[in-house]
Amino acid sequence: MNKQIQQSYTDANFPSTQQMESSDEIDLRELFSVIWQGKWLIIAITTVFAIGSVIFALIQPNIYKSEALLAPASEEQSGGLSALAGQFGGLASMAGINLGGGGGVDKTQMAIEVMKSRQFASNFIKSHNILPDLMAAEEWNMSADTLNYDAEIYNSETKTWVREVKAPFKPEPSMQEAYKEFSKAISVNSAKDTGMVTISVEHLSPSVAQQWVDWLILDINKVMKDRDVAEAIRSSEFLNKQIALTNVADIRSILYKLIEEQAKTIMFAEVRDEYVFKTIDPALVPEEKAGPKRALICVLGTMLGGMLAVMIVLIRHFVRKDDSLENLEPRT
Questions:
Q1: Could you tell me the keywords of this UniProt record (predicted)?
Q2: CB within 8 A of 103, min separation 6: which ones?
Q3: Can you tell me the distance from the alpha carbon of 217 to that of 198, in angstroms, rounded to the nearest whole number?
Q4: Is 207 within 8 Å of 154 (Cβ atoms)?
Q5: What is the pLDDT of residues 150-166, one digit of tens each?
Q6: Distinct helix (H) and strand (E) counts, the chain
Q7: Residue 75: which residues within 8 A CB-CB, separation 6 or more?
Q8: Which residue has the higher pLDDT, 198 or 20?
């Protein structure tokens, strides 16, 4: 008798594995039943999202990508500097001269980082007057190869900025705003195995994209050239002052050799336009668009709508089920 009572207590409080599996099977059937009952709502919501994603994909303007392949320029003048590095490295460092003795930053990597810097981007935007093309371009007119600008941002006839923004922003975009958009438009990548550098630009206009790539290559070569020439001139001035202050023949001979190397650096920079990067494959005006991926947008939009619809149907069912259970509970 006691065993029967104990068994009934166990069955009442601890359901068996078979009962749990049966419960899970019922829940799974209930789940599919709920989804089947709400199939028309799911179809309706999924259809709305599918149509919306198609419309969204179609109104997106085409994006064109132009790119150029570059190779790091060889350092013909580095042989003499390397030879002097071991002997006169200490004296050269006092003059601010880098003799290439090791431990320095690679010039190619430095040029890549300069291209990604805010200062370079700001100077590039200002010198080429590309702020409207960067911040206000709305669509590209293929027949005339011209850009149409957003009238709420920029008036192309008067060449004035008319956008409405809150302080501290102004109608004309700041260089900080422009830098954010510029960073999205350009890409500079270096291949670790070959050392080749790829510069690419994405824009609404294929001709603008190609033009920006060419300008970027010219500007970075000029910037790095001007830096090295200015450094060599300052170093030569310092060394000439040191020559005037010493009468020791050996030291004067060393200083003259260092000045000679700086003169070679200046001469090398002046006679070569492709100072840091040599163009292997120049940028072309792209004929095919690089984006947007309209098919992918439509697929993802439809999938998102389907998942959201299923969630809505399930949530609505279980909320109603909980409410009905609460109503059935006896009230004291």
A1: Cell membrane, Membrane, Transmembrane, Transmembrane helix
A2: none
A3: 11
A4: no
A5: 999 999 999 999 999 99
A6: 11, 8
A7: 100, 107
A8: 198
Alpha-carbon span 134 to 211, nearest angstrom: 13
Assign residue 111 a region (left: φ > 0; alpha: ψ between -120 and 50; beta: otherwise): alpha
This prediction's pTM: 0.76
Q: For the chain, where are the E strands, in sequence order?
A: 64-72, 137-141, 146-149, 154-155, 160-161, 186-190, 197-203, 277-281
* Tokens standing for residue 241: 């002052």
Do 44 and 62 contact (CB within 8 A), yes or no?
no
Q: What is the pLDDT of residues 55-97, one digit of tens each?
A: 999 999 999 999 999 999 865 444 444 444 444 555 555 544 5
Vertex 75 angle, CA 70 and 79, to 5°: 160
* CA–CA separation, 310 and 45 (whole Å): 9
Contact present, 65 and 290 (Cβ < 8 Å): yes
- Tokens encoding 274: 């492709």
Degrees to nearest 5, angle at CA 156 with 150 and 161: 70
- Contact 205/145 with Cβ under 8 angstroms? yes
Residue entry with tokens 């390397």 = 82
SS3 for 151? coil
Q: Which residues pair with 216 in a beta bridge?
A: none
Cα separation, 287 vs 13, whole angstroms: 73
Q: Is 232 within 8 Å of 219 (Cβ atoms)?
A: no
Helix/strand/coil for 277: strand
Residue among 102, 80, 77, 75 at smallest CA distance from 258: 80
Position with higher pLDDT, 94 vs 136: 136
